[in-house]
Amino acid sequence: MRFLGGKQDVRPLYAAADCLILPSRYDPFPNTVLESFAMGLPAIVSSRTGAAEVIERGVNGWVCEPDDAAGIAALMKEADQAIRSGRLPQGARATAERFGLDEMAGHLARLYEKLT
After folding, report:
1. What pLDDT, in 10s, does the model give residues 30-46?
2. What CATH number does the domain located at 11-115 have?
């Protein structure tokens, strides 16, 4: 593992990866998950992140417990097998498309309409 610091363009890093692993103890909804989905990468995320709500096991990723190293390792093995099958990029990208700017602006506008 190498810590690279802040980067302006993370696309080459995602392109070199096989899977995003984010076992955070808390994160409301990390953009990194949507970025990885947009690049066709599945994600292993903690049950304590908002992103866990959009994970479909084996379709776009997996949900782990943040401090369960053995469980995370088992999911990484499962992810490796699924990634090799080639079926995950489409599921990940389809999830990212549900969170595009136009879609999210529409959701926000409908929310505001309900509140007024």
Report:
1. 889 999 999 999 999 99
2. 3.40.50.2000
